[in-house]
Write a structure and sequence with these properties.
The structure holds two protein chains of two kinds.
Chain A lengths: L1 E5 L4 H12 L3 E8 L16 H14 L2 E6 L1 H17 L6 H20 L4 E3 L4 E6 L2 E6 L16 H4 L2 E2 L7 H10 L15 H4 L1 H8 L7 E4 L5 E5 L22 E6 L4 E5 L5 E12 L9 E5 L7 E8 L2 E11 L6 E6 L2 E12 L2
Parallel strand pairs in A: 1-2, 1-4, 2-3, 4-7, 8-11
Antiparallel strand pairs in A: 5-6, 6-17, 8-9, 10-11, 12-15, 12-17, 13-14, 13-16, 14-15, 16-17
Helix pairs in contact in A: 1-2, 1-6, 3-4
Chain B lengths: L1 E2 L10 H11 L11 H21 L7 E4 L2 H14 L6 E5 L4 H12 L4 E4 L9 H7 L4 E5 L13 H11 L3 E5 L11 H4 L3 E5 L10 E4 L26 H39 L4 E2 L9 E5 L5 H11 L1 E2 L4 E2 L5 E2 L2 H5 L4 H4 L2 E5 L8 H16 L1
Parallel strand pairs in B: 1-11, 3-4, 3-5, 5-6, 6-7
Antiparallel strand pairs in B: 2-8, 7-8, 9-10, 10-14, 12-13
Helix pairs in contact in B: 1-8, 2-8, 3-4, 5-6, 8-12, 9-12
Classes of the chains: A alpha/beta, B alpha/beta.
Chain lengths: 354, 376
């Protein structure tokens, strides 16, 4: 078959391309250009840099496959950057990597693969796909520390039928060893942390775009008493402790961010604990909600799944945690799973208390 | 591989390769020296300079400045007059110039040189009256390309030069990088004071070019150093490159009539086959363009995807202008011509060259039609 491999310039997608060749597929490599400076150049730091594109080209050259850089600058701006900025201004904590995967990387590349006559889209994500009589299942990666299913939960049956994650069965060390064995120059390249330029310095990014980012305002207690001042509400995240600059004797945590009136609400750690969250725009890998309400839910990229119960509510779902949890931030993804299998997920729209 | 990207670069002419060989071997000397090794290299270079001057109708061989390529020549041709004599002279140019001119003009603007960018019409062509109207008392240089690198659109250069001279004392520079291979380019034919050529566009080696620059035109150098080229372009001479370039110039000039015939026939067959089969196909700058460019706008097609499919089939073409990463980015030329972003996204440049045979046009059309079928 003919496979389009999304080559980020990292070691995982490098090895993914090599493994597809081993399987006898005709492989075409593509690197996405998603962001550019005013002079049209690629960024120098973060994700998707010009050095990354060069690494991808080098690996493709070493493997002897065609490689192209595809321009998704406009699509990325429209579908990821602008909504990210708008959500942040609304006091949410959006996850640009998920939107990028949903709306650019997979959506646009699946379309592109079809247009180019490619049967498969291949990426270097650490995740696994299993097919059985019931259809395709999305499973956590063999290397739990590298599992990326949190940012892949939006994939459905039609997508998984055409996607391959060749390194999902390997540990990161195995991937690196494989790259070294093949003489690929990405073998020892550090991990990208999955963060693009927006996430690594979102405050600077937002400040460039919006003057109101720097609107100062009050920091208030739960009862509305002003306990301090801040120099701009946007950029605070629910659960955050550092950077509040308060001298109250005991630590305070951000409970709520309201850019509309430039207010940041803080409280004690126990105030942060909630019993659940509302989740909307939910998609299911199988196309249907799971039988029975018991699932595990992951509400941050870097946190363990916790047991919870799903209750349908309006257009979305209420997710009740078995034990209280530090409040998740609106705009982040809630991803549902059972054991190793990822069932689906959606966007957190608020917290629930009993 | 059917190579239809000659406007990006074209194969080395056999005569150029032969001419270069001695200067990559025993004749390795640096022309700026006193001994026989230097003298030999110097002689070859000055001989090449004389022949280049003759081809371009220069008054004197020393009116030829050898450079590191088209970009170096454009930088010197625009910044040289603008900054001469310690001035911050005004710059007038058009919206469709090559980046080597436009970015130099913007750099000069940051240094304090007033910049006027003249718009073009839907064919990418600037009006002589519009250019002249942009010229003021402080204008030091007017830079208008002979023909556009993307569409091949030819500017009415001698009319523009006449109109500019009537409007003020500005120096006229032209980037004739695309035009030279197929059209006569001389001081007289263009009416320009300064002319940029790039060796590899007409069959010479890469990394070398020239600027026709009469010694009477004051130029502030862009590269500072050992004072080669009468101080106008420092840097040790690329002797082999210079000799190869001039051999290619002569070969190209002698080959122009055949070039126009064969390439014209290939393009005619290519475009008529496509026009008959593709609804809504637009040929850019049809009104007046070089014989070798075929810039086509395919409605509803992603040029990026079309190029990838064509590459897979063995046809090399290009879209927009390539940046360092190799991604195709939105074209300022299309924008200046009033072509919308959606339409520009379906634009592909096929450019024919000296190795093109008339039948290549038929073959290319067949391949493009097959590629388009797969894309729908």
């Amino acid at each position: 078959m003919r496979a389009l491999v999304a080559m980020s310039g990292g070691v995982d997608s490098s090895v993914a391309a090599a493994l597809m060749m081993d399987e006898g597929h005709e492989v075409v490599g593509a690197t996405l250009k998603q962001w550019e400076g005013p002079d049209g150049s690629l960024p120098l730091h973060g994700c998707c840099t010009v050095a990354d594109a060069e690494d991808a080209r080098s690996v493709a050259g070493r493997l002897g496959i065609r490689h192209y850089v595809l321009d998704y600058v406009e699509a990325f701006e429209e579908r990821v950057v602008a909504p990210f900025a708008a959500a942040y201004l609304a006091g949410r904590t959006p996850n640009p990597c998920i939107e990028c995967n949903r709306r650019v990387r997979f959506r646009a590349l699946l379309d592109r693969a079809a247009e180019l006559g490619c049967d498969l889209l291949v990426t270097g994500h650490h995740a696994r796909i299993r097919e059985d009589a019931a259809g395709f299942h999305l499973l956590r990666a063999a290397d739990p520390r590298k599992d990326q299913t949190y940012v892949l939960h939006m994939l459905g049956q039609d997508d998984l039928a055409r996607i391959r994650f060749p390194v999902g069965e390997m540990t990161k060390d195995e991937v690196r060893a494989e790259a070294a064995r093949r003489g690929l120059r990405t073998a020892a390249k550090p991990d990208s942390q999955d963060l693009c330029f927006i996430a690594t310095d979102h405050r600077a990014f937002l400040r460039d775009r919006f003057a109101q980012v720097d609107a100062p305002g009050p920091i208030v207690d739960r009862d509305g008493t002003e306990v301090g001042r801040h120099r701009g509400a946007v950029g605070f995240t629910v659960g955050q402790r550092r950077g509040l600059d308060l001298a109250l004797g005991e630590p305070r945590y951000v409970l709520d961010v309201r850019p509309a009136d430039a207010t940041v609400v803080v409280g004690r750690r126990e105030d942060l604990l909630v019993d659940g969250c509302r989740v909307e725009a939910v998609s299911w890998v199988s196309g249907r909600p799971p039988e029975g309400g018991g699932v595990e839910v992951k509400v941050r990229y870097r946190s363990e799944p916790v047991p919870a119960r799903l209750v349908p509510a309006g257009h979305g779902w209420e997710v009740w945690f078995d034990a209280p949890l530090e409040a998740p931030a609106s705009g982040q993804a809630a991803v549902f799973s059972r054991g190793d299998e990822v069932l689906g997920g959606g966007t957190i729209e608020g917290v629930l208390r009993r | 591989m059917l190579y239809l990207d000659h406007a990006a670069t074209t194969p080395l002419r056999p005569g150029a390769l032969v001419a270069m060989e001695p200067w990559l071997g025993d004749g390795f000397g640096n022309p700026s020296g006193v001994h026989s090794v230097s003298r030999r290299a110097k002689q070859a270079m000055e001989d090449a300079r004389e022949r280049a001057a003759a081809l371009l109708g220069a008054a004197h061989p020393l009116d030829i400045v050898f450079t590191g390529g088209g970009t170096g020549s454009d930088n010197l041709g625009v910044a040289g007059p603008a900054l001469a004599d310690g001035r911050r002279g005004g710059v007038v140019t058009t919206a469709v110039e090559h980046e080597a001119v436009l970015e130099t003009a913007r750099f000069l603007e940051r240094l304090g040189c007033p910049l006027r960018v003249v718009p073009v019409d839907g064919d990418g062509i600037a009006g002589p009256a519009e250019v002249a109207a942009a010229v003021g008392e402080g204008t030091a240089v007017v830079s208008v390309m002979a023909a556009n690198n993307e569409t091949g659109a030819r500017q009415p250069l001698s009319e523009i030069a006449d109109a500019v001279r009537a409007a003020g004392p500005a120096v006229v520079h032209t980037d004739a990088v695309q035009a030279f291979v197929s059209e006569e380019v001389t001081a007289a034919s263009t009416g320009a004071d300064l002319i940029t050529l790039a060796s590899h566009k007409f069959g010479g080696p890469k990394g070398v070019g020239l600027l026709l620059a009469p010694r009477a035109v004051a130029l502030e150098p862009v590269l500072h150093g050992g004072g080669q080229e009468l101080g106008r372009r420092s840097g040790t001479h690329n002797v082999a490159g210079i000799v190869g370039m001039v051999a290619a110039m002569e070969a190209a000039a002698a080959d122009r009539e055949r070039f126009r015939r064969d390439v014209g026939e290939a393009r005619r067959r290519f475009e008529s086959a496509l026009a008959a089969a593709v609804d809504g196909l637009v040929v850019s700058s049809r009104r007046d363009r070089l014989v070798q460019h075929s810039h086509l706008r395919f409605p509803g097609v992603s040029a990026e995807s079309l190029l990838i499919v064509l590459d897979g089939m063995g046809l090399a073409a290009s879209a927009g202008s390539a940046c360092h990463s190799g991604a195709t980015s939105a074209s300022h030329v299309m924008a200046a011509m009033g072509v919308g972003a959606d339409e520009a996204a379906g634009a592909v440049r096929f450019s024919f060259g000296w190795t093109t045979r008339p039948g290549d046009g038929d073959e290319a059309a067949t391949m493009v039609l097959e590629a388009l079928e797969g894309l729908q």
